[in-house]
Amino acid sequence: MREDCERTRESLSRWVDGHLSVSDAEAIRLHLGGCAACDRERRQLEKLEFSLKSVLVSDVPRIDFEPFWAGVRERITKKPRRREAIMEWARSTFTPPALAWTVPAVIVVLLGVLSMDSFWRSGWQRNNFAAVESIDAHGRNIALLREDETKTTVIWLYQNQEGEDESSGENAETNPSF
Amino acid sequence: MESSDWELVQKCQAGKIDAFQELVSRYHQKIYTVIVGLLRNREDALEVAQETFFRAYRKIKSFQGGSSFYTWLYRIAVNIAIDSQRRQKRNPLDFRETMDGLFEEQNEVAKDPFSDVHDRELREKLVSAINDLTPEHKAVIILRTVEGLSYKDIGEILGCSEGTVMSRLHYARKKLQQKLSVFL
Known about the structure:
The complex is a heterodimer. By secondary structure, chain A is of the alpha+beta class. Chain A folds into two domains: 1-95; 131-174, no CATH class. Helix content of chain A is 61%, strand content 12%. In chain A, a hairpin with a 4-residue loop joins strand 2 (140-147) and strand 3 (152-158). Chain A is elongated and about 110 Å long. Chain B has a single domain (5-179), classed as Rna Polymerase Sigma Factor, Chain: A (Orthogonal Bundle).
């Protein structure tokens, strides 16, 4: 297809609707005068419009105003049921502009609640020296140091210093020799 | 002298239901025609048309006159019709029966300048092709062809730009043309 034919067919819809500028409409008119294929396309489009109007407009019956208005009035005067009232409230409350700031606000609050929750659960025990366990295994002292923040466990082997007896284990733990 | 739409709207906002009745009498047929075009079912269309005016009445206090009353009303109607269409998803048999009903009753309808399209097959194909369009494409075709609204008004009703209206119209017509090429 030639470039000007392509351009004409792209604009035909607007041309039929009268939505082209005077100069563009004139250019289309001139092209249609000299191009049988595009003119056929134009005729098809006009016939389509004509048929559409025929089907969409003429098939619709006229409706009597009085019964129609009675139906509308009944809806207006009828007290809404609870479910309808809730739906109506939700529709009028959760409008797109309201949701635009509500959704980010809810996300921020949720994140805040989650971080508070994790703080309350583990925040109090958080201490680099929090969990030191001492185990006496076959005459050797083993200390396990669990560090919460980095989730590191250090296994710590040490010997009792000379002169230390079993009862002075606390000193040995605080001053171990490797 | 006949009151303008805006004057009637202001009276409605002050609680005068008679003014709303006047607005309904002005637009009920147009709204009904557009909804029949979208739904292709008269009973459903009547329900949706009444619901449109009911919701318009409920929301009339929020109408500030930024757009014309009829584009505001059409926007409500098109939104309800599209929602209803998506919810119902009528089966093809129901649709065909409905359309046969429309064809049979055509004689009851007043003669119009377009009533000389006699080809029943073309009409059936056309209706079927319209029904295959997406609700958004169907809406632009109906608002343009039936109501003759400008691209700007259609854009306001459907909440999109004039450019989108142009492209939807072009695409929808192209699709209809392709499906009906034998008859056109």
